Prior knowledge:
By secondary structure, the protein is mainly β. The chain contains three helices and twelve strands. The chain has helices at residues 67-70, 134-139, 154-164; strands spanning 10-12, 15-19, 25-29, 37-47, 75-78, 82-84, 87-89, 100-102, 111-118, 126-133, 144-147, 150-153.
Amino acid sequence: MxxxxxxxxxxRPLAAxxxxxxxxxxxxxxxxxxxGRVGSPWLRGTVVPATDDEAPSGDARNPEPEAAETEGPWTxxxxxxxxxxxxxxxxxxxxxxxxxxRGPQTPQPGHTYELGFAxxxxxxxxxxxxxxxxxxLAELAPGExxxxxxxxTKEAFEDLAAEVC
Length: 165
């Protein structure tokens, strides 16, 4: 009997966001690549209308976006190519990345964001990814980062990133 296998890459908790002591949102990207590279990193923010009978979107424990959440206008940035994994201001990726930006480059109320990158070997094995609502950034305790698996310390994130590789 033949069966079809999905080709979607595994989502790994290799991307995180946090707010520094000055109130600036930051991105943390970690790679499983021996050279520490990430493929075509991106940040996409969209307005997702909530209905009265469903929970708000953007829960880190429910990472799969609905089709309507990934279509239509978005704000943020995107890149093409391979880059060194980094820690940088969320809305200001390293200039060497030559990111294409769209819309306001600050957290927007009512927006759900996806920060991620592709497997640098173009093998579709994994994507580093985190999904969050703008309001969650303000709710993080000092020293916490928000990941695919929820809020945790930066040290716990670094340990988790090493573990999933």
